[in-house]
Amino acid sequence: MPIFRGRAGATAAGTGGGSDGMNRTEAARIGGMDRQTLRDWVHRFNQHGPDGLIGIKPSGRPPKLSEDQKRRHSLATTELLCHPPDH
User: Which of 10, 28, 49, 64 lies in disulfide reach of 38, CB 3.0 to 4.6 Å?
Assistant: First the structure.
């Protein structure tokens, strides 16, 4: 069984909660999501196994920033955090 990190790990943990007698509301809370999101992830897990929880692009509005803009923003933020301006 693969080791999941981040959101996939929380979701994998949440999907297993029901088999331990935990209700989905509590499993969703532990996984940091609402019941509907957990339900969607459980269905993906049941249909595709653990691979169904990895690499799923979020639905909805596309990002406003390009990948290059995100990278430059990250670099600028890191620079400010490491070397704050003198005030």
Answer: 28
Q: In the 8-state DSSP scheme, what is residue 64?
A: S
Alpha carbon distance 47, 37 (integer Å): 15
For residue 56, which amino acid is it? Answer: I
- Judged by phi (left if over 0) then psi (alpha if -120 to 50, else beta), residue 49 lies in left
pTM over 0.70: no
The C-alpha atoms of residue 45 and residue 14 are separated, in whole angstroms, by 11
Tokens in use for 46?
A: 């049941």
Nearest to 51 by CA among 8, 7, 5: 8
Roughly how many angstroms between the first and final C-alpha of the chain, as a whole number? 52
> Rounded CA gap, 28 and 18, in Å?
10
